[in-house]
Q: What sequence folds into this?
């Protein structure tokens, strides 16, 4: 068991998972337990997180950074996106704000060992209430938009657009899914839970919580998983959503996703958009 009084390293995935489980017992309300489960799945290698997206994101992030730049991480499953920004900055001092509607990932970030030359703060906020005109030079959103109810997405994007400085940029990653996979998804929850439990058992990670507690949260996670995965069908749908929020898209690209099997069925894809 990780000593909760000792600072955590951003690559200590078991330690981050335990911290998220501990904090989530008090704070995972708005997310339905998502953040309590996410860290364990990541530590077991069962979700990609940012591991395969870094090579696509790093040059785009680097192009938007300058000494003293103000960066907003809009939505955080864990500290991974914050850490990617810091590593990409390579010593450039930044002012970074990490915002999420759930307190759990913010508390985990608070347990990290300090980053040299970086000012890092956290803020618990529903992005439909964000009201900071011209505040940030760079806003990062990694798979966050699918967690926002469809009726609130334009409001969130409109507020993020207002929060950019005149020369600021949004880097947004979103997932698309083919029509066939969308039709198959709703019946997949039980199979996904059973498969995930078997993989967790084989990972060697210590169990968390009372018997059945983690499984209950895993089933809640699975119930909402299809809503997050099988939503936006095409990159054009994402571009249209950005335009409705007041953004002009500078460009977008399908992400290569380092380490992914190129022979894998092409039913899911991630796209990275840069917009202003």
A:
């Amino acid at each position: 068991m990780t000593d909760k009084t000792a600072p955590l390293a951003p690559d200590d995935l078991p330690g981050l998972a335990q911290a998220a489980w501990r904090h989530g017992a008090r704070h995972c309300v708005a997310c339905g337990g998502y953040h309590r489960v996410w860290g364990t799945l990541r530590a077991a290698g069962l979700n990609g997180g940012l591991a395969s997206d870094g090579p696509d994101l790093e040059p785009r992030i680097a192009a938007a950074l300058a000494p003293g730049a103000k960066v907003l991480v809009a939505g955080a499953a864990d500290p991974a996106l914050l850490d990617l920004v810091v590593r990409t900055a390579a010593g450039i001092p930044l002012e970074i704000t990490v915002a999420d509607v759930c307190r759990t990932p913010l508390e985990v970030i608070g347990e990290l060992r300090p980053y040299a030359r970086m000012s890092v703060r956290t803020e618990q906020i529903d992005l439909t209430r964000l009201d900071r005109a011209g505040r940030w030079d760079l806003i990062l959103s990694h798979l966050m938009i699918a967690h926002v109810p469809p009726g609130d997405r334009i409001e969130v994007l409109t507020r993020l657009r207002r929060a950019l400085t005149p020369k600021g940029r949004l880097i947004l990653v979103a997932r698309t899914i083919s029509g066939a996979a969308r039709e198959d998804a709703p019946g997949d929850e039980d199979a996904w839970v059973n498969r995930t439990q078997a993989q967790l058992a084989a990972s060697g990670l210590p169990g968390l919580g009372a018997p059945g507690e983690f499984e209950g949260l895993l089933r809640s996670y699975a119930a909402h998983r299809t809503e997050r995965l099988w939503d936006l069908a095409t990159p054009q749908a994402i571009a249209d959503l950005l335009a409705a929020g007041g953004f002009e898209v500078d460009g977008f690209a399908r992400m290569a996703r380092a380490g992914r099997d190129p022979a894998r069925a092409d039913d899911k894809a991630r796209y990275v958009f840069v917009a202003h």
The radius of gyration is 18 Å.
